[in-house]
């Protein structure tokens, strides 16, 4: 089973603040067939069997049951109908138990955090075609932005990310930049917060974290990581890589051509505003987010 994309798959890694909602290129579909058991010949049948299971069991009531919506859950669980059903139920249970993370949330909330560059998504992919989600936790002022708002922004980013078929298939990359993290910030990282973050990243959201890279961490990080450890399973541990200030270590995983200059790459820190402007002009994105219960104002 291959975990990386075939040679030549990075031809479309241009700088573009726009989601790719179209059919993935053929090499991605080929990768999906080999790695997540997505067979175009049986896909419709599997989706229907998944839909039937949802109605027959009645364990959760999803917003939608159309093919496009259900497909993201199947892709996240490698086309295991049982696994996709459990993920779907976990997703709606998480929503029910954490209503404050979802109700009344809009793209404007996300834009505020984008201004502070706490949570950003560069407008390009890395060498395998995966998106990068970048957290710069040292920029976070807990007196200005609450933990709940960090969660809200994370969830909106992920909801947007999984609109891309390529992201559903291949997953994404997380970089946690912990440079400047303080003891004061670390105090907010309680076991409850850790548990919810792991639920989002692993058990309760239709997103695949292909790898998580920790950079610029200090001794303060040890305090935080010790809180997270009990909630991290062995599979997730194998996807976490610690680099400190060693840029060459990070570059073994992500080519510098697809990184910001601050991490030894070539790109500037692109403004996030272009993402938000594009989202509000895209009728499909607006519709997708509204059907998920988010407040989105459409701009022409």
What is Rg?
19 Å
Shape, principal axes of CA atoms: globular
The number of distinct helices, counting runs of at least 4 residues, comes to 14
Assembly state of the chains shown? single chain
How is this structure best described in words?
By secondary structure, this protein is an alpha/beta fold. It is built from 14 helices and five strands. A five-stranded mixed β-sheet has the order 1-2-3-4-5. Helix 3 packs across helix 4. The chain is globular, with a radius of gyration of 19 Å. The termini are far apart. The mean pLDDT is 90.
Question: Which secondary structure elements does this structure contain, and how are they paired or packed?
Answer:
Blueprint: H1 26-35, H2 43-57, H3 67-76, H4 81-97, H5 107-115, E1 119-120, E2 132-136, H6 147-161, H7 165-170, E3 172-177, H8 183-186, H9 191-203, E4 209-215, H10 219-228, H11 234-237, E5 240-244, H12 247-251, H13 273-281, H14 283-291
Parallel strand pairs: 2-3, 3-4, 4-5
Antiparallel strand pairs: 1-2
Write out key terms for the chains shown.
globular; 45% helix; 5-stranded mixed sheet; alpha/beta; 14 helices; 300 residues
A few lines on this structure:
The chain contains 14 helices and 5 strands. It is of the alpha/beta class and 300 residues long.
């Amino acid at each position: 089973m291959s975990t990386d994309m075939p040679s030549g798959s990075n031809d479309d890694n241009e700088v573009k603040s726009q989601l790719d909602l179209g059919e993935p290129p053929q090499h991605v579909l080929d990768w999906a067939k080999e790695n997540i058991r997505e067979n175009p010949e049986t896909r419709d049948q599997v989706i229907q069997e998944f839909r039937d299971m949802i109605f027959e069991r009645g364990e959760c009531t999803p917003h939608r049951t159309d093919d496009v919506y259900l497909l993201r859950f199947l892709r996240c669980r490698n086309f295991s109908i049982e696994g996709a059903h459990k993920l779907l139920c976990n997703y709606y249970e998480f929503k029910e138990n954490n209503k404050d993370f979802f109700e009344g949330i809009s793209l404007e909330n996300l834009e505020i955090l984008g201004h502070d560059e706490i949570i950003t998504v560069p407008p390009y992919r890395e060498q395998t075609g995966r998106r990068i989600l970048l957290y710069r936790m040292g920029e976070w002022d807990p007196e200005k932005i609450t933990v709940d708002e960090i969660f809200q922004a994370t969830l909106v980013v992920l909801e947007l990310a999984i609109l891309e078929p390529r992201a559903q298939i291949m997953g994404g990359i997380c970089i946690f930049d912990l440079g400047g993290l303080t003891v004061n910030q670390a105090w907010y990282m309680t076991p409850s917060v850790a548990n919810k973050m792991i639920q989002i990243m692993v058990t309760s959201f239709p997103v695949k974290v292909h790898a998580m890279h920790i950079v610029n961490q200090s001794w303060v990080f040890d305090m935080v990581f010790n809180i997270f450890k009990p909630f991290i399973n062995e599979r997730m541990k194998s996807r976490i890589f610690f680099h400190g200030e060693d840029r060459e270590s990070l570059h073994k995983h992500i080519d510098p051509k697809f990184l910001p200059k601050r991490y030894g790459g070539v790109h500037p820190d692109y403004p996030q505003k272009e993402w938000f402007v594009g989202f509000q002009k895209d009728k499909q994105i607006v519709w997708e987010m509204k059907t998920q219960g988010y407040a989105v104002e459409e701009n022409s």
